[in-house]
Amino acid sequence: MGRTHKSFRPQSAIMPPNLHLLAAAGITALLLIVQSSAAKNPQFREAPAFRNGKECSKSLWSNNAAVHVNATIHIAMTLDYSTPYLRGSIAGVLSVLQHSTCPENTVFHFLATPHHHPHLRRTITATFPYLNFHLYPFNPTTVIHLISSSIRRALDQPLNYARIYLPDLLPPTVTRIIYLDSDLIVIDDIAKLWQINLNSHVLGAPEYCHANFSHYFTSRFWRSPAFSTVFKGRKACYFNTGVMVIDLTKWRTHGYTEKLEYWMRIQKRYRIYELGSLPPYLLVFAGNVEGVEHRWNQHGLGGDNLEGLCRDLHPGPVSLLHWSGKGKPWLRLDAKRACPLDNLWAPYDLFRHEYLFSDS
């Protein structure tokens, strides 16, 4: 006669209800501990303190100052807390400070979406405790209705267009600004770029007149005299908008934000270009730019906008390395597929990798 076996019931099936509650409470507590630990461990390592040399004049500028102080260098950048581009921005700031003769005279003006401001303020303060900086709210709704899709999704983000609104967002006491992209490092004293003479121009940037200018606009643009005659009488050359010196007073006086928006509206209706925020700048400014030495924007190190392959430096001296294009140094370094020039970016990377967290 066979023996009768009691059916097996998993332990979880007979767990008393109060134990389920205790287990859930334990998991919740563990998550809170992990989140608290993440908050206490900064995302970036703290940068050294950089001090002025003896030859530096004292900068007295503040947001409420009535006049512009010549000793102060104003730099504008965008900060995106939700993407790895923040890592590039942090490296860019460090590079400016490290190579400046008068780093304490540099004021950074950061544009970011308002809901990221608390996180960004904590991050910047923890990473650069001595940095003179201001955060300005950029609302994506300001421009999102004007943005057309381009050849790469990253180019369509509203923050890419925030530079158009710098004269409106910054206080009137800021009359001149250097705009820098988030994928570059400066390896020279930024004061040299700041001191260039814009003469009668609103904007200064390295120009590349050998580039095929027609490539930046569609055949529809060139076939239509209503569009293409915009360049009549202008020696229009390509320039990269990732590094610009801007006279904000002239910009405000002549309403260049509205002129850029005009061409973005034309683009929405007629599709006259494919490349994000650059073409409106070419339409408004090309042929009317104060040329800057090419050393101040060795761009294209990220390859093209489709494959992002490795590139070499252009011939000549270098003051600024710019990874414009699809390939970004932080992504290639993390993937162990770095291009040779990416190793020049690596020393400025303050990002705390996971293995650093485990040792803290």
From TrEMBL:
Functional pathway: Glycan metabolism; pectin biosynthesis
InterPro entries for this protein: Glyco_trans_8 (IPR002495), Glycosyltrans_8_dom-fam (IPR050748), Nucleotide-diphossugar_trans (IPR029044)
Classification via Gene3D superfamilies: Spore Coat Polysaccharide Biosynthesis Protein SpsA, Chain A
Pfam families named among the record's database cross-references: Glyco_transf_8 (PF01501)
E.C. number: 2.4.1.-
Domain of life: Eukaryota
Topology with respect to the bilayer: Single-pass type II membrane protein
Compartments (UniProt record): Endomembrane system
GO cellular component: Golgi apparatus
The keyword Transmembrane helix belongs to this UniProt entry's keyword annotation: yes
Location, primary (coarse class): membrane
Coiled-coil features, chain-numbered ranges: none
UniProt key word Transferase: yes
Keyword vocabulary terms for this entry: Glycoprotein, Glycosyltransferase, Membrane, Signal-anchor, Transferase, Transmembrane, Transmembrane helix
Molecular-function annotations in GO: glycosyltransferase activity
Family: Belongs to the glycosyltransferase 8 family.
Listed name of the protein: Hexosyltransferase
Organism: Fraxinus pennsylvanica
